[in-house]
Every structure is written in structure tokens, then in C-alpha cells.
Amino acid sequence: MGLLDTISKKDKKTAKPVKKAKKSASKKATSKSSKKVKKVRVHSSANRVLNKPLVSEKAACMETEGKYVFSVAKDASKSDVKRAVSALYNVTPVKVNVVNVLGNKSRSGHKMRKSSTYKKAIVTLAQGEKIQLYEGV
After folding, report:
1. Can you give the pLDDT at residue 42?
2. In whole angstroms, what separates CA 94 from the centre of its chain?
3. What is the spatial distance between Cα 118 and Cα 131, in angstroms, rounded to a whole number?
4. HSE (CB half, 13 Å, CA atoms) of 103?
5. What are 59-81's pLDDT values in tens digits?
6. How far, in Å, are 38, 42, 68, 96, 120 from residue 75 at the CA level?
């Protein structure tokens, strides 16, 4: 081993250092193109944000407190929901809570099935304001 070490040391001393080419211009060009572009959510109308009102016992009980439950688009934010509710129903939402609801798995024989996931929003209105959702029910 000692013999091989001395030979490799001599080779390192005699070898000339190789100059690296400047790549700063190409690095700057690639860094600009590799930046992530921020997605902008564009909803042309409130109907794209609010899918449907959710009708359940719990939602009916929450209605007495001034809270209404809606199924909303998966990419909708709280501010999108707030704007859509105020545009469609002419009310002023005070608070919006958003929940991602996972689909339930069920089995039928040997086949597995899963209901679809969705996003729901719980909208709290100012006192004294109401939305007429269940007119014919």
C-alpha cells in the first residue's frame, strides 16, 4: 500500500489544475425559469364556488344559530366563499369555516367502494340576517 500511495501523490503533484468554465450566466437563466409560478384562483361567478347547500339535521340545528352549511369547490378559499355568499344571497357573512370531508369506504361483497371527498363551508351570518334555503321542503 505504501508504494501505491507514493505513486498517486506524485501524479497529483504533476497534474495541472483544470480551469472551470464560467457558468454564472447560464445559472442565472436557469434560476429564473425554475421559479414556481403562483397559481391564481379565478372564479368568474359565485356559482362556481358554491356547489349546493348541505341539508342535514346538524345543518338545520345550526341554522337557528345563524350558521349555514354549503358544499363548495375544492380549490375555493374562505374569501372566495365569503364573496360568493354575499353576491348570491345579499347577506354579509361574518365568519367562514372550511372543512375537507374525506369520503367513506364501504364494502359490497368483495368489491371496495369509496364515496367522493368534498369541501364544505360553514358560513356564519350577522345577527338578524337569514337565507331562505329550504322553501319547498
Report:
1. 44
2. 22
3. 23
4. 9
5. 999 999 999 999 999 999 999 99
6. 14, 10, 20, 15, 11
User: Which residue range is the domain that position 91 belongs to?
Assistant: 49-125
Report the domain count for the chain. 1
Would you put residue 131 in left (φ > 0), alpha (ψ -120 to 50) or beta?
Answer: beta
Measured distance CA(74)–CA(55) in Å, rounded? 19
The CATH number for 84's domain is 3.30.70.330
Sequence-ordered strand ranges (E) for 14-87: 50-53, 67-72
Q: Which amino acid is at 71?
A: S
Query: What does the pLDDT average to over 51-60?
Result: 92
d(CA 129, CA 125): 6
- Tell me the pTM: 0.63
How far is 39 from 31, CA to CA, in rounded Å? Answer: 19
Does 60 fall in a domain? yes
Whether 13 maps to a domain, the answer reads: no
At 7-39, the pLDDT tens digits run: 666 666 666 656 655 555 555 555 555 566 555
Residue 1 is assigned to a structural domain of this protein: no
pLDDT above 70: residue 120: yes
In a domain, 101, yes or no: yes
